[in-house]
Specification:
- The structure is a homodimer of 299-residue chains.
- Chain A is α+β, with helices and mostly antiparallel strands and 299 residues long.
- Chain A has one domain: Ribosomal Protein S5, domain 2, CATH 3.30.230.10.
- Chain A has ten helices and twelve strands.
- Chain A has helices at 54-57, 72-81, 110-125, 132-146, 152-158, 194-199, 203-218, 222-235, 241-252, 272-275, and strands spanning 5-21, 30-48, 62-64, 67-68, 94-100, 161-166, 174-178, 183-188, 257-259, 265-269, 281-284, 291-293.
- In chain A, strands 1, 2, 3, 4, 5, 6, 7 and 12 form an eight-stranded mixed sheet that branches. In chain A, strands 9-10-8-11 form a four-stranded antiparallel sheet.
- In chain A, β9 (257-259) and β10 form a beta hairpin.
- In chain A, α2 (72-81) crosses α4.
- The first copy, chain A, is globular and about 60 Å long.
- Chain A binds chain B through residues 120, 123-124, 127, 129-135, 159-160, 163, 170-171, 174, 176-181, 217, 219-221, 287-289, 291-294, and chain B through 120, 123-124, 127, 129-135, 159-160, 163, 170-171, 174, 176-181, 217, 219-221, 287-289, 291-294.
Chain lengths: 299, 299
């Protein structure tokens, strides 16, 4: 018996620093590093189309914030689950609606969140019978395969303030976390292409990321995460001027800010950006990680 | 700068089935199996005593539901963190208050939850700088060392519907989960001694637990978990009459119930016990796992 529709929420994820670890096997490829998952995230609703039969299947509606739009990794994850018209779904099509208040392409892991959310929701809607680790692996492989991210999916699945000790999906990678709960503020100045950075020479970047991870593991505290994030952005030569200015302003006001990897985004712990006179978006670290949510209308 | 007080919530955990895996090293000892974490859980508040100096340190107040009471594994975890009067805490004593609506000794993992909650809260209150994995390991080792549980701590740290694939603390053990969210009902008839069962011959029990785990991994769905739980309780000869009667009544009413290991407790998915005419406690599967919570009075 399948419910034929389900909704998942996946937290946003700002990466503080990372090293890239490519591998021919997507399950083993990934990144090491650390970041914050956020209560601001992505909600994905998966359902059969309202109509039935071949006409509906031809539509396969996909929306992002109510507008038509597709995400490659989401499609790949649905394919890996066998959730397509003609397979498991029967003659009906599959509708996927992605909702988020997070800026897209600005370092919040929206593509990873949408992919993991689609996998979790589709598994529930169509009773695919996959385990949590299998769903995370499917989403991680889809994201890595599309080159849109390396470590967001496993971090978003865990929640909290994840440390990626070893790259890769569950069974290959390894995670820890900083046991912290904090208000988080952020301001975004626009996109920075993940593909462009990850497609270039990542040697210096990865060396800086490995150094930062070593120091964080010696002292797994939030202030150390932020300090290492600032050092990483400088060492890896990724800091953009607007973000550098904001980090300095927060520092002058006695706060703690850093740049989100990879986006033109500054994030701060506590009231750092507000205290420095900015008008930031406000959320918290997410405690639960990716999860099914109940449809209000179904209760 | 330490906050000198912090509060953690840890979900209750009903084990559906398990196999016991003793080991000379507590970090590697544990159990394989599966169960449900519950939104009914244990809240642990750790703080310095109100007074100061040697007089206060002599008190070291410990309460369970407001009454004086200590839990051995909680004390061991605080010791492992170095959180005792004279160490990290200075001249003040450490107060630990354990609050829970769950029945104690009835198969809800209250001792594991109190221990993990104390470790998480003490780490935050006294700025011990341990990572999440380290805190889970400390609590797991304390619980195993006292013989009060084998797999509750790692399951409670994860939340959801955890599958314990390999025994032991993070870095040794391995977890997966069933991606489900469900209402859970339970009725308790009293205690069953964990120490007595785990101290006896566990060969037949562990063989039944391994069989159940193999079947659940082939089909990681909630109904399969419940079916395997019922089979395990019968095979391991642990079923008590009151619980057997309730499981049968729920089955007759078209529902899905099983016995909590180890307690005289029956738990059901959805409205199983209500539909069968019982007056159960009602909660849900917990999505977040163990976590710091904000003190309402501090916000």
């Amino acid at each position: 018996m399948s419910r034929q529709r389900a909704t998942a929420f996946v937290p946003g994820h700002v990466t503080a620093f990372f090293s890239a670890h490519p591998d021919d096997r997507p399950v083993a490829a990934g990144s090491r590093g650390a970041g914050l998952t956020l209560t601001d995230g992505v909600t994905v609703r998966v359902s059969t189309t309202d109509g039935s039969g071949a006409a509906a299947a031809a539509v396969e509606p996909r929306t992002i914030r109510g507008e038509p739009g597709t995400i490659g990794a989401v499609e790949d994850a649905l394919g890996a689950l066998g959730v397509t018209a003609g397979e498991r779904v029967g003659a009906d099509g599959v509708a996927v609606a992605v909702e988020t208040d997070l800026p897209i392409g600005a370092g919040f892991g929206v593509s990873g969140a949408a992919t993991l959310g689609a996998a979790i929701a589709a598994n529930a809607a169509f009773d695919c019978g996959r385990s949590e680790n299998e769903l995370i692996r499917i989403a991680h492989e889809a994201e890595v395969g599309r080159g849109t991210g390396l470590g967001d999916v496993v971090a978003q699945a865990r929640g909290g303030v994840p440390i990626r000790l070893e790259p890769g999906a569950p069974g290959v990678g390894e995670l820890d976390g900083i046991p912290a709960d904090s208000r988080v503020e952020y301001v975004t100045y626009g996109e920075l292409s993940t593909e462009a950075v990850l497609g270039g020479d990542t040697t210096a970047l990865s060396a800086a990321g490995e150094r930062a991870l070593g120091r964080l593991c010696e002292d797994p505290r939030l202030p150390t995460l932020m300090a290492q994030a600032r050092e990483f952005a400088a060492d890896a030569d990724l800091l953009v001027p607007e973000v550098a200015t904001a980090i300095e302003a927060v520092d002058d006001a006695g706060g703690d800010a850093a740049m989100a990897m990879l986006g033109r985004t500054v994030f701060a712990i506590g009231t750092g950006l507000s205290d420095a006179g900015y008008d930031p978006s406000i959320c918290r670290t997410d405690t639960a990680g990716a999860r099914l949510v109940r449809d209000a209308e179904c209760e």
